[in-house]
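We keep the chain:
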Amino acid sequence: MEDIERLYEKLITNDEDSPSLYNIDTKIRSQIYKKILHDLNALKEKQRITKLDSDDYKRLDLEIRLRLLKEIQIIIDDYVMSKKNNELDRWKAMYGELDIYIKNFFYYRIDGKYEIKRKVLTNYKIL
């Protein structure tokens, strides 16, 4: 996750011609998505052979959720910048409807009930 966070710090760039405009660096976004997918595949494989009620399963669940939340964060960041730059048509063509990502954010987030109820998932809706 550290590699993903390091890349995320470089994701948003400032337009030199228009300092008030910010954009997503598409190369960095691609690198992040590639890393997220690689990590998800490895984590899901480990989780597949782990007992559902174990602490290891819970740890893997948390790691998967963090990566899915980062993906959603990038998509919403892109939405905010696209809206500000009057490029929502491009965003919608690429991602669809914002409501889907908001709903998934609340599905994957870690709330106070996570620890209390051992709220783990068995059905990730990988985007």
Q: What stands out?
A: Helices lie at 2-8, 26-48, 55-84, 88-95, 98-108, 113-117. Residues 59 and 112 are 16 Å apart (CA to CA). The first strand starts at residue 12 and ends at 14. The beta strands are 12-14, 22-24.
